[in-house]
């Protein structure tokens, strides 16, 4: 049976480390990292995410600033808020919860955020810095996946990693991070031919496609390590909905050596890495060195 890579437990330890760093920053530098979250409209799922983020931010000792805007807010009003947060020295990280209403541009909102405060790591500047090997703020979900992989496998150098999905949010930054760790990286997507043959080459498979239970045991090389980023809600046999990943967990568990579960794998790492990125951003804003163990 494949080992379970317990992202929930890892994320809890990471939040413990973050709380220690925050306490030290307060004591030695009189610095409390602050995260501002912008929520536009009343999407119930987004409200839950934002509440969780706010709660966890406060739990590690940081300041949480929540800004709720009505669904009909104009782009200019959103920009005005972002500009205020960019200029606020108590705010070290800014995040706009997506999706936003259709009349607003997510790309333009991200571009408006000061790259030094872009703790989601989604801006062109941070993506470009990562791709060209410069200091960046790294997108939270791929950062969390990398931490889990390093913890499980140690040195990743020379391993063949196949990433399923090429989104700016997950697939592409994941590829950059694994390349930086000297993996041989293949990115597969919806036009990839014979995708199961491609994944059978891999020591590491990262699945980020948003297709319920797509990856089967027959797609894997025996002993592969599997990171399942997907979060899909499907109807269960009892009529109730349940969450599954992009990997058929049961089917692969006799083939893979280790796998992240859904839920409880990558998901909890994403918020923990958002907090870690905010501490990193606060340190850089003060000219301090990066906090050990919180970034890659
Ligand atoms: P996305 O923007 O929709 O990208 C999906 C990618 O998968 C695309 O590159 C697409 O290829 C590829 N794809 C779709 N169907 C495919 C198929 N049948 N075979 C091969 N490739 C296929 O999604 P995303 O934002 O990257 O998210 C991916 C999944 O991760 C979703 O389930 C999302 O909910 C989840 N997610 C989880 C977290 C977390 O914290 N755990 C964070 C972010 C996302 P093309 O480019 O060719 O269309």
The number of strands is 11
CATH topology of the largest domain: the name is Rossmann fold
Rg from alpha-carbon coordinates: 19 Å
Helix content: 40-55%
Low-confidence stretches: none
Large-scale geometry: globular
Number of helices: 10
| Beta-strand content | 15-25%
What's the average pLDDT?
A: 97
Give me the CATH architecture of the largest domain, please.
3-Layer(aba) Sandwich
CATH superfamily of the largest domain: NAD(P)-binding Rossmann-like Domain
Order of helices and strands: EHEHEHEHHHEHEHEEEEHEH
As for the number of domains, it is 2
Strand order across the biggest sheet?
A: 1-11-8-7-5-6
The end-to-end distance, rounded to whole angstroms, is 30 Å
Name of the top-level CATH class of the largest domain: Alpha Beta
Structural class: alpha/beta
Biggest sheet, in brief? 6 strands, parallel
Bound ions, cofactors and other small molecules, one mention each: NADP nicotinamide-adenine-dinucleotide phosphate
């Amino acid at each position: 049976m494949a080992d379970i890579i317990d992202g929930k437990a890892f994320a809890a330890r990471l939040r413990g480390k973050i709380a220690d760093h925050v306490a030290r920053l307060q004591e030695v530098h009189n610095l409390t990292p602050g995260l501002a979250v912008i929520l536009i409209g009343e999407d119930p799922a987004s409200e839950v995410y934002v509440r969780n983020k706010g709660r966890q931010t406060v739990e590690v000792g940081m300041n949480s600033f929540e800004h709720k805007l009505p669904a009909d807010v104009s782009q200019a009003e959103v920009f005005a808020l972002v500009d205020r947060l960019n200029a606020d020295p108590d705010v070290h990280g800014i995040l706009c919860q997506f999706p936003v209403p259709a009349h607003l541009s997510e790309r333009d909102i991200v571009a408006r955020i000061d790259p030094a405060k872009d703790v989601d790591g989604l801006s062109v500047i941070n993506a470009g810095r990562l791709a060209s090997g410069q200091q960046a703020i790294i997108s939270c979900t791929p950062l969390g996946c990398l931490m889990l992989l390093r913890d499980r496998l140690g040195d990743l150098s020379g391993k063949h990693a196949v990433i399923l999905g090429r989104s700016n949010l997950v697939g592409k930054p994941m590829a950059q991070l694994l390349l930086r760790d000297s993996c041989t990286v293949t990115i597969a997507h919806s036009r990839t031919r014979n995708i199961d043959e491609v994944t059978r080459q891999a020591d590491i498979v990262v699945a980020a496609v948003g297709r319920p239970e797509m990856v089967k045991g027959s797609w894997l090389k025996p002993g592969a390590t599997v990171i399942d980023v997907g979060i899909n809600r499907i109807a269960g046999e009892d009529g109730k909905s349940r969450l599954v990943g992009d990997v058929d967990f049961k089917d692969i568990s006799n083939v893979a050596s280790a796998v992240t579960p859904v839920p409880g794998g990558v998901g909890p790492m994403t918020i923990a890495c958002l907090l870690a990125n905010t501490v990193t951003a606060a340190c850089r804003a003060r000219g301090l060195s990066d906090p050990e163990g919180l970034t890659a």
